[in-house]
Amino acid sequence: MTALSFVKGQGTGNDFVLFSDPEGETPLDPEQIAFLCDRRRGVGADGVIRAVRSRALPEGEAALAEEPEAEWFMDYWNADGTPAEMCGNGIRVYAHYLIAEGLAAPARTDTLPIGTRAGVKDVLAGVSGYTVDLGRWRLDGERLVAADGLDVPRPGLGIDLGNPHVVVALADPDELEALRLHRPPSLEPIAEHGANVEFVVPEDPLIRDGVARIRMRVHERGVGETRSCGTGTAAAALAFRHWGGAGMPDSWSIDVPGGRLGVRMFPTEEGEHVSLSGPAELVYSGSIALP
Ligand SMILES: N[C@@H](CCC[C@H](N)C(=O)O)C(=O)O
């Protein structure tokens, strides 16, 4: 049995087991990841993040080709042992971890570029958390979404942020509360690689002081219902703005069961980007024997 030293971290209640493997010598298998994330037998988390140098992984080589300064790669795994392209809460917690462990310099003035399976993402430290530029996004068709607690299937808008999302607007907060997300919502047509499904309602009034405000619950691919999904909040804001048309602002505040996240859309030379801002915390460290 090998012992693994880890740090437990969280951002708006989306929680992660983080560990360092700079030279890529300790890849975990899906069973070991599922064990670490098991809330009864293991540490308990929504995902595992391995801190590995980009040059030590084939996917990292692609990140370095995009941005030679992207020394660190976020090797992200869902609780069921499947890899994911991106994690918006995870990357803030990961940046915090790299800085706290002395593996990266504090990113207060210069951004910290981090390699992910969805490309290099720039993270900036702020006073009360971190902001990550999630980059480009695209609409990804429509699907009918059925879930326990919903009377009839509802239309959902696909949004690709490197990882796949389907966003469903509900009528009111009562409908949001009545949802039971103990199993994955079903999608028609099926999403080939699965999808994170976000259910959203507007706050009343929707726009206050130039910021649009919505509330969200999420069922994450490879995990289940979580307290928060960062890329999911960006997808929810983008979908709502798409539905609302002209007059919708570019600044959004999204309440999730685990807290509040900020999303902003802004122009760049290559087209519109979307950013995510929110807290990141390291909770405790420990060591666990891996099966
Ligand atoms: N919680 C994350 C998303 C994690 C990956 C997701 N479950 C997937 O499979 O795409 C976030 O904060 O973005």
TrEMBL record:
Its main location: cytoplasm. It is an enzyme of class 5 (isomerase). NCBIfam families: DapF (TIGR00652). This is Diaminopimelate epimerase. SUPFAM superfamilies: Diaminopimelate epimerase-like. Catalyzes the stereoinversion of LL-2,6-diaminopimelate (L,L-DAP) to meso-diaminopimelate (meso-DAP), a precursor of L-lysine and an essential component of the bacterial peptidoglycan. The record marks 165, 220 as: Could be important to modulate the pK values of the two catalytic cysteine residues. It comes from the Bacteria. Keywords: Amino-acid biosynthesis, Cytoplasm, Isomerase, Lysine biosynthesis. GO terms for molecular function: diaminopimelate epimerase activity. It catalyses: (2S,6S)-2,6-diaminopimelate = meso-2,6-diaminopimelate. Pathway: Amino-acid biosynthesis; L-lysine biosynthesis via DAP pathway; DL-2,6-diaminopimelate from LL-2,6-diaminopimelate: step 1/1. Its EC number is 5.1.1.7. Gene3D superfamilies: Diaminopimelate Epimerase, Chain A, domain 1. One of its GO terms (cellular component) is cytosol. It comes from Leucobacter weissii. It holds the Pfam family DAP_epimerase. HAMAP family: DAP_epimerase. Belongs to the diaminopimelate epimerase family. The active site is at 87, 87 (proton donor), 229 (proton acceptor). One of its GO terms (biological process) is lysine biosynthetic process via diaminopimelate.
